[in-house]
Every structure is written in structure tokens, then in C-alpha cells.
Write a structure and sequence with these properties.
This protein has 2 helices and 5 strands. By secondary structure, it is of the alpha+beta class.
Length: 151
Amino acid sequence: MDKQTLPRARRPGGFTLIEVMIAIAIVGILAAIALPAYKESIARSKRSDVQTVLLEDAQYMQRYYAANNVYNGTTPAPALPYTNSPRNATGSAVNYTITIAPAPDTTATTFKLIATATNSMAADRCGNFTYTDQQIREVSGSGQTAATCWR
């Protein structure tokens, strides 16, 4: 018999256990790196949204003052156009609840808006956001500064 007619030894198809374990290890390492970065990216976008809503509500308060000469009027009382972030969200989709701070933070000539973190943002590192008539931006997170969280 010549070499061409001899049956060839075939390598069985598929992957070896070592190859599968290496692939699982690589996926695990990538997930360990990518997942925290992804979660922080989502949190940053939610923080950006609440900042936009706070600025829109602050514009409303300025218009209210121009019409009524006070920020804390009673007839009519100021009613924020957006009290949730994201806008018009309900239930567990609400990330922040926005309110006008009571006296002494809100007076006839000053106001303070507070965005309280809820649901998925309740444990966020930046915590609650505030914005005043003097354009002062603050956060009440665990050691975070306004410059870090307000971007």
C-alpha cells in the first residue's frame, strides 16, 4: 500500500477542557473590568439628566419670581414643572425626586432646589443634588465634591 491509501488518523472535533477554561478565564477578567465601568457610565448619565432637570426647574423659579416678585408665594404657589428625573417618570423608574426646599432655604428672595436620590440611584456616590438662586451647586454624597459630581 502506498501512503495515499492509508487511512489518516483524525483529530476529534471540539475543544479541549483547557481551551474552554482559558476562554472562561478571559471572559471573567473582561467582565470584572467592564462591568464597573459600565455601571459608572450609566450613573453618570442619570446624574447628567437630574442636573438638566434642576436647571429647567430653576428657570421656572426665575420666571415665577419675575411674575410674582417672590419665590415663596402662596397665590399661586410655585409648582415645579418637573418633580422627577427622568422627566415624567413614575414608580421604580424615578431616579431623583425634586422639591423646593422649605424655609429658611427658600424665602421671598432666595430659593433652593433639592434632588433626592431614590431607587437605583439611592446608593450613588454623589447622593443628593442641590441648586440655588445664586447658582450654587452642591452634593451631599459620601465625601464627593460638587466639582466632581456636577459636570
